[in-house]
Amino acid sequence: MRTKIVAGNWKMNKNFQEAKALTSELLGMINDEVQGNVKVVLCVPFPYLDAVQNMLGTHKRIAVGAQNCSEHVSGAYTGEVAAPMLKSMDIPYVIIGHSERRQYFNEGGALLAKKVDMAIANSLTPIYCCGEPLEVRERNEHEALVRKQVEESLFHLSAEALQKVVIAYEPVWAIGTGKTASAQQAQDMHAVIRQHLAGKYGKAIADTITILYGGSVNAGNANELFSCPDVDGGLVGGASLKSREFTDIIKAMKA
């Protein structure tokens, strides 16, 4: 059975006091809402990782994640954060290849493959992001692009290593725009990704991979999105900054 995950990506939002307040609110609200094999991950800014992790304590269902890591082990890379640093803090998850990293920091497939390797080597679960911009979808080239993104950064992995990866499909045109892919569009793309994995690793392996949908997930559309057979949860942006709405999204994720 695939693990169901609702991950909140806080991006570069909230000051320290606000971050602690939000974490406290979420702990109070979702403690009884996480059921079965559903996990909640709070991907918070680097300066808040330790504090949020301490607030979560030994909670079995709620974990903390980083939003990025370097492809380097260590060295003279001012401003970067290495996967071994995250490992030393017992951070279990890290987002790799978010569309904003691709767009603003020119991160491509080869670089992201190195980051995926670095995460896995340090016992981190990479949440690997892929997805198409609007112009690519309008040219009906979105499936080809996403297959290429998956190939470039994941197909070098062994089957064993692949099973340590979570994939997040995020149509770029639906991130922070208020637009959301329809449930059918999300299901179709998730099925494309899973079929592509099956072509490389076999159906049995592909069926174990958790694939999340990211792109303006909110309390109003979560039920329909999460009911799709190949949608195993969500990578939630803006709505994860609102404790009540994020809790409602989590409630929509059935084990």
UniProtKB/TrEMBL annotation:
Its main location: cytoplasm. PROSITE patterns: TIM_1, TIM_2. It is found in: Cytoplasm. GO terms for biological process: gluconeogenesis; glyceraldehyde-3-phosphate biosynthetic process; glycerol catabolic process; glycolytic process. The active site is at H98, E170. Keywords: Cytoplasm, Gluconeogenesis, Glycolysis, Isomerase. One of its GO terms (cellular component) is cytosol. InterPro entries: Aldolase_TIM (IPR013785), TIM_sf (IPR035990), TrioseP_Isoase_bac/euk (IPR022896), Triosephosphate_isomerase (IPR000652), Triosephosphate_isomerase_AS (IPR020861). The keyword Chloroplast does not apply. Homodimer. Involved in the gluconeogenesis. Catalyzes stereospecifically the conversion of dihydroxyacetone phosphate (DHAP) to D-glyceraldehyde-3-phosphate (G3P). Belongs to the triosephosphate isomerase family. This is Triosephosphate isomerase. It comes from Chryseotalea sanaruensis.
